[in-house]
Amino acid sequence: CEKGKYGDLEAATSKDACLSCAVGTTSTGNNRGGVASCVCSKGYTLNSTCIHCASGSYKEDEGPGACSNCDQGKTSPPGSTSKASCAVGCGAGSVGPDTGPCVLCSPGKYQRDSGQNPSTGECVG
Prior knowledge:
The chain contains no helices and ten strands. By secondary structure, it is mainly β.
């Protein structure tokens, strides 16, 4: 099975038998171990299920590891995948105070500019 999918059938005869890992998880490919082949994606941490890293943190690797905190005075949107996401003020696609927490825009809404907080900007749709 390709990355992001797993197989749980013995003697499968096609890649069509592969199933997608759940949201927030991925696999490395050639996954024959069933759903256990799926691990937390970058930006997600294990808390009985894989959940977004909280605002103000990030995770650069796949697997069950913990999210790392941004440096003091910096924040990041939930689900950030690199330290480069940490900045003063929330990034585009989210709103919140300069030191966080950032809140992602809900589906169907957007925020083009970074550094927007609820008193000066909001997600629009």
